[in-house]
Write a structure and sequence with these properties.
Helix 3 (32-45) runs antiparallel to helix 5. The chain is built from five helices and no strands. It is mostly helical. The protein is 59% helix and 0% strand. The chain has a domain at 17-78. It is elongated.
Length: 99
């Protein structure tokens, strides 16, 4: 059986070097369809009274599943915010023109 090649993770610097990717992901995450889908998934995965009444093992798995959803959505949102050193520098005095 051939071993599967595991891809090397892309460094975050490479992601943040392409502003277009950051803006495109932000627009996707801000869309109503994505917001609705993420809320439905988080609500379905979250603990409930009936899940607490189950065995401790099932309850622990349910909490771990819920935490995974929360972390994934939070990490995606982090990819839409440029680090301070990557943010475009705004020249505050360009609105003043010299006569």
């Amino acid at each position: 059986m051939a071993s599967k090649q595991i891809p090397i993770p892309i460094p975050l610097d490479r992601w943040f070097n392409n502003i277009k990717y950051v803006e495109e992901l932000r627009s996707i995450l801000d869309s109503d369809a994505f917001q609705t889908a993420s809320c439905i998934l988080k609500e379905a995965a979250g603990p409930s009274y009936s899940s607490l009444a189950q065995s401790a093992e099932n309850n622990n798995l349910r909490h771990a599943w819920f935490a995974g959803y929360r972390d994934a959505f939070s990490d995606l949102m982090k990819l839409t915010k440029l680090p301070i050193d990557k943010q475009p520098q705004i020249d505050e005095w360009t609105h003043i023109s010299n006569p």
